[in-house]
Write a structure and sequence with these properties.
This protein has about 80 residues and is an alpha+beta fold. It is built from three helices and four strands, in the order βαββααβ. A hairpin with a 5-residue loop joins strand 2 (about 35-40) and strand 3.
Length: about 80
Amino acid sequence: MAYFAAVLNMKDISKNATYRPNHLAYLENLHAQGKIFARGPFADGSGGMVIYIADSFEEAKQLAEQDPYIVEGVRSLDLREWSTV
C-alpha cells in the first residue's frame, strides 16, 4: 500500500455547493473501505486535498477521477505519490 495526495484546486466555485454532498458521500464511502488516510479543505477556500491509500498510482488515479468534484468539473486534479518518511 502507498499514499497518494490528490490536490483538488477550485475550477468552478459556482458548482461547488451543488456537488459538495456527492463529493462528501463519495469520500465517506471510500473512507469506510480504508481507501482514505486524510481529507479536508484548504483554509483559504482554494480547494482541498485527499490522501488516498492504494496499491498503485493507477488505482489512486481511478479513485480520484471518480470523485464527483472531478467528474463535474468543479475542481482540477493534481495527483502525486506521497512519502510518509
